[in-house]
Fold each of these.
Amino acid sequence: MSFIKPSFRHPSAPTNALGLTTQAYEGGISTLCAGCGHDSISASIMQAVWALNIPPHRVAKMSGIGCSSKSPNYFLNKAHGFNSVHGRMPSVTTGANVANRDLLYIGVSGDGDTASIGMGQFAHVIRRNLNMTYIVENNGCYGLTKGQDSATADEGHKSKKGKINPFESIDLVALALELGATFVARSFSGDKDQLVPLLQAAMSHKGFALLDVVSPCVTFNNHPGSTKSYDYTREHVQAGSVVDFVPMEQEITLDQIKGSTQEVALHNGDSVRLSKLNDNYDPTDRVNAIKVLHKHKSEDKLLTGLIYLEPESDNFHDILNLPETPLSQLRENTLCPGSAALSAINTGLK
Amino acid sequence: MKATDISNPEYFHKVVDCQYACPAHTPVPEYIRLIGKRRYSDAYMVNWESNVFPGVLGRTCDRPCEPACRRGRVDEEPVAICRLKRVAADHKNDADVASRLPAIPTAKNGKRIALIGAGPASLTVARDLMPLGYEIDLYDENAKGGGFMRSQIPSFRLPEEVLDQEVDYVLDMGVSQIFNTRVDSLKGILDQGYDAVFVGTGAPKGKDLRIAGREEADANIHIGINWLESVAFEHTKEIGKKVVIVGGGNTAMDCCRTAKRIGGDEVAVTVRSTYEAMKASPWEKEDTLNEGIPILANHSPKEFLVEGGKLVGMTFSVVESTYDENGKRTITETGEIVTIECTDAIMAIGQDNAFPWIEKDIGIEFGEWEMPIVDKTSFQSTNQRVFFGGDAAFGPENIITAVAHGHQAAISIDLYLNGKSVKEERPEPGTNLVSTKMGIHQWAYDSAVIDDDRQASAHLPVEQALASRKIESEIGFSPEVAFTEAERCLNCDVQTVFVEEKCIECDACTDICPTNCITFTHNDGTPLRDRLTAPSLNLETDLYVSEDLATGRAMIKDEDVCLHCGLCAERCPTSAWDMQKYLYTVTKAGDQPAPILIEQTSGKKSSEAAA
């Protein structure tokens, strides 16, 4: 078994605006099971951050516990990172984000880390509209503990041992829409053409961005009867829109547009362009998004693509009016403004 | 684009760049792995089967394999294939090798063959036909076999005992040696009733330089290859103090280094081209410079200066090479004239074929440049009984090309003498494709790719090397250095074999591939090379295209910079990728599969199989 990836790369590998090839965005060699969807997501994250021309050291990788949560070890090993307690990634990310809002926060979580032990934290980080990209590597099972059904396992799904799941599943996308998330998308690890632009858009979004990615567990949840297998997902996936992430400086050429399109400008001047499969679908309409999502579910279809986007919103920093300067750069006189300032605050509270 | 047919033996052969580039198609990665395992005799036999002179070639080969080496496309320098070959020859067990040489039948098949010239081409023909029971008469004008390997390659590059041993492996098969005999008439040979005649007489005529002063200074002007031969056979034992060499090929390098060893104190090489455009191999130029011999580029010879009937110097016109956009060179004089004092001058400006001894009325037609018309596949001339090979066939090349010709000519001679078509009934190559899987994520080869730079081959200190023309100047690799160098080999013969039915399109292989060789995309007729994960710029290498998969996409692998690291197969959950070792051998005369192929397919040593 190989533990080290050869150091040779393609001699004419393309470079981004920083002059870096994707090699600068790599991590260690994965120890996840061969064929794990998580590895495809890691590869897509590398591709997206590289294409966004973000220096690797301006990224913070946040995670909890689980197969998904160990995957940040396999990408961007020049980035900051915090592998936190099970289900507590959102709080740690909140703290980090408050301390330094200049980094790009990529949270990687799984269905257990998010929909079970971390459910409370997940709900609250959405409420707070923390500026981060929250990726759920959703395989519907607890792979690290031999594949028990997780809270996102669909009702009626058959486990590898043959047991039918009797419980209703938690749809994280629906939940996020209810809780007021400002960017909600769903994708599939086996479709990088869709996943990479969605990641770019999510990372460029100012506010909380949820990306629920179906990521088959080849070892425990890729059998006939599973509703999170490669085959089942490919058969039931229905892309609501084909997404193209368009950086600010890039002009849109006619041949890129397929079918009816809609362009949504993002906060930083970049935009997300959608080639829509359904003309009536407007991803900026939350009510409609919830409706379409439920409709697909009732038809046994998995709706993917950009489901909802609110480009301009007040995120956690705006709501709490937090200082822009990272904590580490604030001088003592700013942090401890003195007794006069304290008196003013106390007076204000009387 | 149509799906790749991997059952075509040439597809995977081409992936093994070194072997594909070798005229004799020696299975390079196969013997490099054996050297890495210190199985030197086995490595030697793999070579010997294919190229007959591993010890000679390990020192003198023109190395067409090294510029082709895939490592050179991802690393700064290719694997030192040539010097590794020498390690196999230097460290082999002679008794082991001797016991594995082919058995020669005592009952002959009644067919007699004459080989004219005892160089690498003829010796290869003898090596292939003796085990089949042919009687062979080998003619040469010199006292020993070896041809230009003996006469033109100086002993400090190729020690005599190395050459003797490998020539003797062939001669000791019972070849009848008619040496010290110059063949003056091919008709005379044919009249002796030989069933077939092979002409391997090389390109024996060194070119001369007809400029002012040539006749007057004749006593001290030498033709390079003739002079080297004269030194080799000890007719010439010394040369004057100041020697000028004219020419920039490997012969010029051999001449100057020889001159330096037998009396030349001040030796200089002059060449009309630029230093970069010289024909000599880079390593030969390097060795020359290291021995304190200057190479004067852009010097075009003008005149021999003669005083009192003796050569005292040469004048050169300094020239300039310019290239147009098509790479065509124009040489113009700058007007500057340089005079170099010298006592002797050696012309090493090329060599020609010469067949004054072949009569025009014996059915051998001659074409352009007075060269015989020889078929490029069968090496048969227009007289069915007469075959050509080596430099005699198509002009000056090198040893490994002569060996390749010899193998093919031997096949033709055997077919011809068995009443078969020399063109239609040639044997197919031998192939073997077998999985190297040893367990989950375990391979039967060192799949890890090491970062080490190309290892330097050790040389004697210059003053020691220059002491005698018979001391080998290069020491070569030690077993330890050879191991490191062997590990640099990327094992390009371990093929990435893809099975469509097993693929679940999880993308694990595309994600892990260090050089982004693999792409899954729709094979819909639009050019594939534009749509691959990594730029596909090397059009010389093939795309491995699968049949369409379940999603309608196909797997496309650009073979160009695949490291054969096996990571795609390690990360594949369904074993749709497998690392399979491909052995391609050129089948020899008598339709005999190479013993190495028998060993690989039966797991037995050839000696055991024969017993």
Note: Residues 37-51 of chain A form the longest helix (15 residues).
Amino acid sequence: MTLVGVVGAGVMGVGVAQNLAQTGHDVILVDKDEQTLSEARALIERNCRMSRLMGGPELDAAEVLSRITTAVGAKQVAGAEIVIENVTENWDVKRAVHEEMDAACGPETVFVVNTSAIPITKMAAVTGRPDRVVGVHFMNPVPAKPAVELIPGFHTSGETVRRTRDLLTAMGKKAVQVKDSCGFVSNRVLMLTVNEAAYLVHEGVASAADVDEVFRSCFGHPMGPLETADLIGVDTILYSVEVLYEHYADSKYRPCPLLKQMTDAGLHGRKTGRGFHDYDPSGRLVAAGSAH
Amino acid sequence: MSESIETKKQIFEFIHGRFPQAEIGDSDDIFALGFVNSLFAMELVMFIEKTFGITVPNDELKIDNFRTVELMADLVGRQQVLA
């Protein structure tokens, strides 16, 4: 049985750890303090209980948790064959964690960078094993989403890609392989779509409610681009668009001024109760598009 | 019987608090009304467990037990009898 290290017990790390454990893998889940790990275990237990209710498989929470060991500090993953890193999307934080993992793990260990934005080649360069570093963009909630983007860096070996693909298949994931390019496929398209949707509201072409209605009713999308922006966080959207703009130096990624103003005004979406739409304290949409 | 009425009232008020515009009868399928999704089902489980001091067993954690106010009140009643 493969022992998989999971670094970072936030939303993504918890989802990855649960997905691994429920598909029969032994997991060592690490974070920087006991409190976060204890919350992670409680969250995994709750998510397992609710799995069938949410349309997923029936899961025995005790059995899933029995496959997950928790420990404080990134170097505790030293014994893992593959390590999936899920810390926050901040270059300095990710770099420090990868340096620590690189010092602790054996030379054969593969590092998977779970990211929607960080270039894999750049991340691999801070380790002494650039051929054994690969990117995987997991979607949230991880156990419920059937596919991921798989991103080899410039130096990633075929063997590393094969081992990662095998693990993803065992986790029940379809891997769509794309090249290492800032934003990969998902965010390059999604962020431009959201940015353009924001321009439509900014220019008064349509209300936020009507923009989303077109996507839901005409295209059958479960959620419009501006509801998606509110879910992800308007500030996060702005940050992602700015990263694309800076990386490609291409004016097609110029951020909509409305995104900047909303970010400055604290209209960050569901998490602040107001974004393109209004939300109640539980995060439920209560008034569509009233902000504009 | 009065316990059941009180249970229904509390469950109704929780749903109504979230969706003030929705008109919901005790036997209406809230999932069929279109504005409730499975995430809300999870909130309902947590609300019911906390409010009525029960733990819904795994084999009862299915969407069919949470479709209507009546079904949820029945579920609470079953667990309170067992407790």
Note: Chain A has a mean pLDDT of 93.
Amino acid sequence: MSPQILGVVVMFIATLFLAVPLGRYISKVYGGQGVWTDLIFKPIERLFFKVSRIDPAREMNWKQHLVALLTINLVWFFWVMFCLLNQSWLPMNPDHNPNMTPDLAWNTSISFLVNCNLQQYSGETGVSYFSQVFGLMFLQFVSAGTGMAAAAVVFNALRDKTSEHLGNFYNYFLKSCTRILLPLCMLIATIHVFEGTPMTFKGIDTLTSVQGDTMHVSRGPVAAFVAIKHLGTNGGGFFGANSAHPFENPTYLSNIVQMIAQILIPFAMVFAFGFYCNKKRLAWVFWCVMTVGFLVLVIPALNAEINGNPYITQMGISQPGGNMEGKEIRFGSIASAFWCIATTVISTGSVNSMHDSFMPVSGMNMLLGMMVNSFYGGVGVGFLNFFIYVILAVFIGGLMVGRTPEFLGKKIEAREMKIAMIIALFHPFLILLGTAIASYLAAHDTNMGWWFADAAGKHNASGWLNNPSYHGFSEMLYQYTSSSANNGSGFEGLADNNPFWNISTGIVLLFSRFLPIIGPVAIAGLMAQKKFIPVSSGTLKTDTGTFGLLVFAVKVIIAALAFFPALALGPISEWMKMH
Amino acid sequence: MKKEIIPSLLLTIVCILFFSGVYPVIIWAIAQAGPNKGEGITIKDSKGKYYYENIGQKFTDDKYFWSRPSAVNYNAAGSGGSNKGPDNPDYLAQVQAAIDTFMKHNPDINKADIPSDMVTASGSGLDPHISVQGAEVQIARIAKVRGLDKNKVDALVKAHIEGPMYGMGPSRINVLKLNIDLDNLK
């Protein structure tokens, strides 16, 4: 096995080995059982709840959960808007970066609030250290905690019981941050410090290069940031180049650590469900469905990147490293291709190479990963998205065997199905509507006025494209797909820091975050109130390979029907042109 | 909703203090024991000038091993790639131009020996490395310009190959370290 292939195989297997025990630990945390971290964090949490006047033992129903979730998210939004709009005079701004424009601040706050981290600014010049640490990094913790808390509510609702009481939101939320995210962040940040990632509050350093050029080097408190960025599947980079930056991701080892960090909790949440609801077999079925989907996407991408760009082959040079445009030597094309799919099937959206410059097949598979958005998926929310597909599969399966559909002993009725269908169809609706509007404007080269100006000050809509033809269409499709999947990566050539893109993607982000949380929590909450039906010979068994296949088929059908026409106009046409 | 506003506000404040205050300070304290106190690993040349080991530099002079093309011209006050799509005609013209320039400065080599990383931009624009083959095709030029024995330069390049980590990942050469040692070569 080549050293590069071995690297990605080791990454994947190591993640699985770590995820199973972590899943057991997470299930204990949400179940309120004793764990070793009680020693340090129990007193801290007790203090926090006391100061905040919260009784963590107060049971909430699903509606109360959602009210608490949305209220605290609103508070966070205002706090980070304040930071970004006032960073020029706030402390910790050694590089004297200016305030954000209102449309950029709107997009950035929402984007970090919803765990997306679409970045239409560059970290070096766009934000102060105060905004990075007290605004954006804060949201990276709490938005991940929000998603995990929502998943914990669903876990609780799916236990064999009939109840309205589904635990306390603040309790799930805070414990997700203190017990799961923080200890792992400490470990990951420490590894990064020793691998050479900066952790300083000093500003830009100016020096003369060996050849005699003056150069500036941006630094900052990167190590702390990069840990939660991956662990919380946030993906927003400290620097503009994200994890391609040699400070943010200095070595092959740090690359492995970051890759494990981002897939670890999405894996572990599936197993946590298994332990929590005592459905271990079902959890493995879910995990296998996700893994098959991941492999189907990642293998063609690896192959395309190893083989390199056919046009460059025609120029008569060699491509021993594969397609190297936009990639770093220390990772190579294989670890980069693996990353590009991993970061899109889960909702991280961090990059260690520039997605715009990947081969069409890889680009299409990245898009598909985000379009399905539940081959693992983001922390907490990935499981919620998957749950929607499970409900759909149960319904279809129930119709096939001619029985009332039921899942884990609870009937699935019209109301749950309606919610599931709305959530499943809303995702393609947002992506395709946004792309249709943007490509209409670009194709007609509309004068956008205030909404858009390119670097030369022209207002023509085609000016936001960095590449012509099919690839240009893919840039716009990617931007809305990434927004709607709350992913945050981009075909970064797109000129997206302007009112048109900031505002439109901001709206997409809000809908695509909160509806897929509200929907599954509502379904689970409704199910929890229903009477438990014991398993009989007529029950559709869900912990089998057949059912796994059914879930997979539902995903493929929805994704294929909804997105094939758009993909045909973008990456598929591009591929056909190149071959 | 009203009932949740006060607890939400208070919990937000303590969380900001904890996750944005206590956590980064702990990591910062750990970094004081780390390489260069967490300010970025530096190396010094023979004259005592320091450079950042991980931040690539622009090398376009014929007497140095070249680094890769960069979309940000190796100015690490920013970072980023070209973001050019693989079938963009402008991009392909740029790559062709880079190949022509490379051939002009290295007339003794075969075109087929040029690895693509020497004519394509990295993701960060600050890539500190080149591939082993990328260094090897420049040996003849360096030896000629500097009047050095080819075998000596070849040995220097070999000494700078960083192999896979525990058998994983690509081999690579840090251009900055290579060029600093090249300046010391007699």
Note: Helices of chain B lie at 2-31, 89-105, 132-136, 139-146, 150-159, 175-184.
Amino acid sequence: MTSTLTPVRKRSALTKGQLPKFAPYVVLALALVVGAAILAVVGFNAFGWGIVSAILFTAGLVGWSAAVEGGRKAKDKLATCLVVGSFLVALLPLISVIWTVLVNGLPGLLDPGFLTTSMNGVTGAFDNKSVEEGTPVVGGIYHALLGTIQITLLATVISVPVGLLTAVYLVEYGEDRPLARAITFFVDVMTGIPSIVAGLFAAAFFFAVVGPGTKTGAVAAVALSVLMIPVVVRSSEEMLKIVPNELREAAYALGVRKWRTILRVVIPTAISGIASGVTLAIARVIGETAPILVTAGFATSINNNVFSGWMASLPTFIYTQILNPTSPSSPDPSSQRAWGAALVLIILVMLLNLGARLIARAFAPKTGR
Amino acid sequence: MSKRIDVKDLNVYYGKFLAVEDVSINIEAKSVTAFIGPSGCGKSTFLRTLNRMHEVIPGARVEGEVLLDGDNLYGQGVDPVTVRSQIGMVFQRPNPFPTMSIRDNVLAGVRLNNHKISKGEADALVERSLQGANLWNEVKDRLAKPGSGLSGGQQQRLCIARAIAVEPQVILMDEPCSALDPISTLAIEDLINDLKDQYTVVIVTHNMQQAARVSDRTAFFNIAGTGKPGKLIEVGDTHTIFSNPTQKATEDYVSGRFG
């Protein structure tokens, strides 16, 4: 042990003129108390309490900081308060949505047979009985879940090759030609197409080609592809663009042909980004309601064939259960089923997003020694 | 297996812009030729025309002839892919394929072209190429690891191993040491010395000491001013170029009195 000549001091001279570490907590506590007091005068509600407390907290902390620490630190604290406040404002609706769907959807989801039965043969009489006698709500979303998965899968099978090949053309062969510029322009336009227009397009197209009144899962898949393709093109294009040119040149210099270079070097290097882009595109269209309503109709029974007959999907299931309850006199069981389906849909989208991350990680270029 | 290159009256254009004007040079087989000159004088552009790599840039074209043992690279019906499989290239920045292991990087030229190769042959080729690039001892225990985990100098030698694995006639090197530290540079220079027993090597470098150390012949390129085309000023034995050049511009450049 070496003895030190430096005298032991409580506070370093270098930290003079700073607020103590606990300052924000003190101000927060005060703001909450004062906020509650103010709200008690005008009539208490949680939302107003939060707003008033946040304003009081910001004013208090910034004022205190200005008095002790000076203008620069006060501005810093003000900016921090604004940033955190905006973040909370952005987060609130999200949490609120998830909470509402969880609370309303869980009873439906936990209902036995909810995921394994369809609405085939479920009539208003069952719902009336369950409301009057307390029997379990019968019927489920199996047919809708199956329809959603089939339609989305078919839409993916259609859009991924089209979108990826378009992106390959734009990045590798386009060279800013008029055709490439036109494609880029129309892809941008397609991104903004309202989904109902995509549905009408697919419906009209099949009416003209196959026959009037053609409503099948495949028509819905085409409608969803119209929405998906621009997203896939855009994300794949960005991913292919960031593949360094040096890798292409390295392959060319080894005497590798251009198409092999694209297939074996460029796409594998970008595959993680492309895969997660595709997954996000699926998540984007899986909840579409309007285009499915006009293209696949809505069914109450299981349909395993996307190429014939009307088909249910989760969004249209929710829509019809809320708008036309199975039993008009007691709509509660229908609304419970609708919330349950909404919860399943959110879980599906969440799983897809998680899947995108896992795919990105699995395909990412390996590092390590 | 090495061939000579003879260039006759070569002009290189980017669109309408004449980048390199009227170059004629003979590059001997099994020798090291260095291109030196100030930045922007067209030496890299010229190097890339020797295996038609400049065509990757839209609008690039050449006039004149480049003869590989008498066959014109720019003749009618010549496939640039065939040219590049005979004339390999190593780039300024090491660029191993990030999705591939060290072993797969070496085999890239074979595998990407879908040539069938047995495991035994592949193992032999990997070992031969990595030994040719002086890298075998450093990586033999981790061939399955990704190439991007190597140091910069090792990555560059991996790229050289990748280039010699396709058994080219000529190896072009575009400032292969400019991103490397002196020790890695020394390793690459030793390697270039070994390579010339089997290959024709052409190297672009900014480092005049490096040109003096590794090359048999040196070509000096210069540019009259911005927007003017680059020109080949003088080419000769390295010793002559550095000690007794015939042109004033060359003497100014190699003695550091340039500009």
Note: The mean pLDDT of chain A is 87.
